[in-house]
Request: fold
Amino acid sequence: MAQKNLHTAKQQKNDEFYTQLADIENELRHYKEQFRGKVVFCNCDDPYESNFFKYFANNFNHLGLKKLIATSYNNSPIAGIDLPLFQMAGAGGKQPIKIEITEVPDMDGSGSVDLSDVRYLLESDANTSAPLEGTGDFRSDECVELLQQADIVVTNPPFSLFREYVAQLIEYDKKFLIIGSKNAITYKETFKLIKEGKMWLGCGFAGGNAYFRTPHVKEFASGVYDPKTGLVKFRNVGWFTNMDFEARHEDLVLYKKYTQAEYPKYDNYDAINVDKTASIPMDYADPMGVPITFLDRFNPEQFEILGITSGRDEFEAVPTKRYVNPRQINKDGTVTNGSKANTRATLLWKNKPNDIYYTADNADGYLSILYARIIIRNKKAKESV
Reply:
């Protein structure tokens, strides 16, 4: 994600995290045939820092690409590299550039090239490189012009600009495979695309965690940054795409049966609560709320997405009640504003919970709130009875 400081309002955001080549290879192996004859654009990728560029340049012939386009950003750290590719207009390598590759010389018959010698890519007159006039911002006119030439966009865009980035891809009707925080699922704009089947999650990172290299070492929580490897761990990151893959159509195997005791109904949504994807009852055909991690296993032939418990009147997931004068009761007994109760699904309890809980004038008991739940329906539930 070599796209730092794209907007003055976002300057305090640390968006510079570089994806590991092994993670790129592991995800893209599910889509290989879809790249044949296509123009691929990596529009958040310094060619010398980005493993996305390295992957596509190395596999250009194997994938059968028509063209590979990559754009760098302002103040790239590649200065000083003795390659004519990066020494333009006296910029010493710091000026944002674009690279367009339509031919990769097969020097040793392997079908790929060693990127330690990028000159291979320049030996063909078909390949070009040139400075960009602007900063390399994906929203700039010159980058949008390149986007319009592309069939597929693959990159790790700035997390802080995820809404804008996806909106642009949808506006120009592009296929894409990008990395983002799974918290983006709860964004109104993102969830709408997921519900309408215009975007879904990819296969994901091995083991559920993603590890990125970053040039900006700062204070991270314990266990997040490994000084030995120089990698930062993200637990809540995934691939977002509108490119189909085989595993997306595999049924989730369900083994549990519905009981009222195990699956309580929300106090403010017309659905039951399911705490884990693996616990979805096989014989329940009505709406149920599941964690957003459910989307990792979502099969559109098996399930229907109805909405999300955001507190907003969106889609079919409309709250059945609004809490009047909600209050949050903290562990130490202090009382604070409880407005969160109107932005989450809630469970109602007769006995006072040991943890933080909520009360309201129109709640006949004690409330606990849950992180965003996706409301779904099992299309095949009646078949299992």
User: Anything to note?
Assistant: The first helix runs from residue 21 to 28. Residues 8-247 form one domain.
